[in-house]
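Section 5.1 Outputs to date
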Amino acid sequence: MKYIKGLPLFLILIITSLFTQNIEAQIDASKELESKIDNIFKDFNNINKPGATVAVVKNQEIVFKKGYGSANLEYDIPNSPSTIFHIASVSKQFTVFSILLLEKQGKLSFDDDIRKFIPEVPDFSKTITLRHLASHTSGLRDQWSLLGMAGWRFDDVITKEHILKLVSQQKELNFNPGEAYNYCNTGFTLLAEVVARVSGKTFAEFTEETIFKPLNMTNTLFYDDHEKIVKNRAYSYHAVGKNNYKKSVLSFANVGATSLFTTVEDLALWSMNFSSNIVGDKDIINQMNTLAVLNNGETFGGAYGQFINKYKGLNQIQHGGADAGYRSYLGRFPDQNFSVMVFSNLAQSNPGNLALQVADLYLKDSFKKEKEVTKAPKIAVKYIKLTNNQLNKFSGHYWNDDQKLARKIFVKKDTLRYFRNEGNESALAPISLNEFKMLGIDADLTVKFTNTNDKLQMTVLENSNEPFIANKFTPPNYTASTLKEFTGKYYSPELDTFYTAVLKDDKLTFTHARASDIVISAAKSDLFLVGGYSFRFERNDKQEITGFRISSGRVQNLWFEKVN
């Protein structure tokens, strides 16, 4: 019998056959996995539509990467894993990382006062630290909300100088530093400026030299010049109707909170650095991955430039991004040494959802199975019949002061109705004399009416969630003549902008030199609402209107003074 290198030929043939079969099985499995991922992105796989790119990292290796759809609809340029995207708020973790690199070099402390580096930040008689900025707990108002209120468009050229001047004009905070969490882009623009002033380089230069080059992220940069040409970049779009798209123009020239340009291939290298520590060290990574703590000792799911949550029982550290038509997501599963990133240039896309669908394919064996428990049989809800007189005693308007929301309860066709706004109402079915189940919705909601301090109160409960509590009130009945006292010109020194309140079609309407007209509706006396904004008018001792305070999610109590 013939021998080859000491082994019988038949044994070599068996080993070779087994090896070949194993390779073929791996190829088949890889093709099947790719087919499943293709199915997840099937709606993007069309050169005539904006698309997406995806990369998967497992055990410090890119195990999958692919592009779908178009990077540029005008020239039919396809997306690929090397297409460069603006990834919006995913940028924030690079900003925090840069600050911590400088701290490691002994050039600053994470707990330094921001005014030590940027004295233009107003003295609010409260210390705002770099740590506060990095965890959205500074109390500063958000730059994008402020700019919007000042009449800026988001396709305007918005530079770092514009934002710094706006910050320098602020006179109040949303809350005291460290007392609450409220997502704030302003803090990260300031952090990037701290990096620039401490290092003596632009933020783009600092990150290029200290992060991107060492990690071989050759297609990554912070875009601080809106006129700069970047080859192989994707442009952003939004859908208008079916299969029709318009450009979503973005002309940002500011960095820190946003404006990182990169590819899924390069971001994969960044995700690996959380384990390899080619740049930085374990202390920096641990700091970034640690939950931030409020003054009262509570956490809120936010770390530094990232958020931490459970996904199907696994620890995930993640952040998403959204600017113009760009959408992005990076999810890391540190215990599984796994990460997935998805970019898209379609405003209506949801990269977080897409990324987690991809994660499901790779991590299915790691998901913790819920312990099987014997569930008690569901007891059927027993409804009762109430007369119209019994129902009508709950009719009226209800107000939740925390969320600035009004609800209306009324009887229609012998049924109590829960009215949110036009075209959005639900039937309430009685289960007791003062308790109702909300019908026609997915959630299990109970609405209960009680007398509290001689006032009717409505409580909406959904399982163990925080209850929605609203008190009955009488809404104002403003007429065109009574609305006239609200008209006039209002000025905000913090925004350096004017709004003029006029009556149009007997409705109170705010006009602005640049912004579209805003029609506001009265919710309570001296309180008007539109969208997510509230306008609370203030009066002097003579009951004359002196101005109003406007609030939204990321800006609270911004003052406008009545000037005529």
